[in-house]
Design goal:
The structure holds 2 protein chains of 2 kinds. Chain A is α/β, with parallel strands linked by helices. Chain A is 22% helix and 12% strand. Chain A is built from 3 helices and 5 strands. Chain A has helices at residues 17-27, 115-123, 143-159; strands at residues 55-60, 81-84, 129-130, 133-136, 164-168. In chain A, strands 1, 2, 3, 4 and 5 form a 5-stranded mixed β-sheet that branches. Chain B is mainly alpha-helical. Chain B has one domain (2-98). Chain B has 4 helices and 3 strands; from the N terminus they run βαβαβαα. Chain B has helices at residues 7-13, 35-51, 69-73, 82-98, and strands spanning 2-4, 17-20, 57-60. Chain B has a 3-stranded parallel β-sheet with strand order 1-2-3, with helices on both faces. In chain B, strand 1 (2-4), helix 1 (7-13) and strand 2 form a beta-alpha-beta unit. Chain B starts with a strand and ends with a helix. The chains are: A alpha/beta, B mainly alpha. Chains A and B meet through helix 1, helix 2 and strand 5 of A and strand 1, helix 1, helix 2, helix 3 and helix 4 of B.
Chain lengths: 170, 99
């Protein structure tokens, strides 16, 4: 007997943020839509050793402190940073980022910065270790600047002999 | 490995591996406070790293937010707010010119 569907849909249910943001900013009077990065070739490196021997690092787009002058902080540009995982933050600054502030909240850093979950997976023996520092990268309008930040984080990952980088954008 | 909720942006960009978490933007590693869900999502992401055989591998995490209202409500544009959006945009551009 056929199983009954949990839901029935008349449109594709996955949200297209490219379409949504274009329509939103167009309605706000911006006539030039943002041109998102699209690469024909995507890189790929197979994992060459067991997960249980891997050093895993996290890259976040959130920050430890206010970085937006609208929130009372100095108007300094955000820059790439690293921070020791031993000093696990209780909160991260996310107010300047474009997440769904009506539907949810970011009061629990584990919901986007999984340092506790990875620590538990080290204890379970699933991965070798959590890298001694995590990395932060600013959300930039300029794709050129994001490319430079990516190169910096790539160098830090190489220095730390990171095997797996988990990038968790907000 | 990207763990994210904006599937279209990541897939259009093109990455080696993505774990798609079909939640409102803000909690790609699981619902706030739900440690069991968070750990299962991170564990699955690592399994995807381990087992993917080609770039642009996307796996969807087997989790559900519980409602679907957020899908249409986020950045909504309609008759009820189009004038307000236009006015707010004009004000923002004016502030950028004078700052």
């Amino acid at each position: 007997m056929a199983e009954r569907a949990d839901r029935q849909v008349t449109h594709r249910s996955h949200v297209s943020y490219i379409d949504k943001s274009r329509e939103y900013y167009e309605a706000s009077g911006y006539d030039q839509p943002y041109r998102w990065a699209a690469f024909n070739e995507a890189p790929f490196t197979p994992l060459t050793k067991p997960l249980a021997e891997c050093n895993v690092a996290v890259i976040t787009t959130t920050y430890l402190h206010h970085h937006d002058s609208a929130h009372g902080a100095p108007a300094t540009d955000k820059v790439v940073y690293h921070h020791p995982v031993a000093d696990r933050p209780e909160r991260m600054f996310t107010s300047d980022l474009s997440w769904d502030k009506q539907a949810t909240h970011t009061d629990d850093p584990e919901s986007f910065l999984p340092l506790g979950a990875l620590t538990a997976l080290v204890e379970d023996g699933k991965i070798g270790q959590l890298n001694h520092r995590f990395f932060g990268v600013p959300t930039e309008y300029s794709q050129r600047r994001t490319g430079l930040d990516a190169a910096t984080i790539g160098e830090w990952c190489a220095e730390d002999q990171v095997d797996i980088a988990l990038l968790v954008p907000l | 490995m990207v763990i994210g909720s904006a599937r279209d942006i990541v897939e259009e960009c093109g990455v080696a591996r993505m774990l798609f978490v079909d939640f409102p933007l803000g909690n790609p590693c699981g619902k706030p406070g739900d440690r069991a869900m968070q750990q299962s999502i991170i564990s699955l992401a690592l399994d995807v790293v381990d087992t993917a055989i080609a770039p642009r591998t996307t796996v969807q995490a087997p989790v559900h937010w519980g409602s679907d209202n957020w899908r249409s409500a986020f950045m909504e544009v309609g008759d009820h707010n189009i004038e307000a959006l236009r006015a707010a945009g004009a004000k923002r551009r004016e502030a950028q010119v004078t700052s």
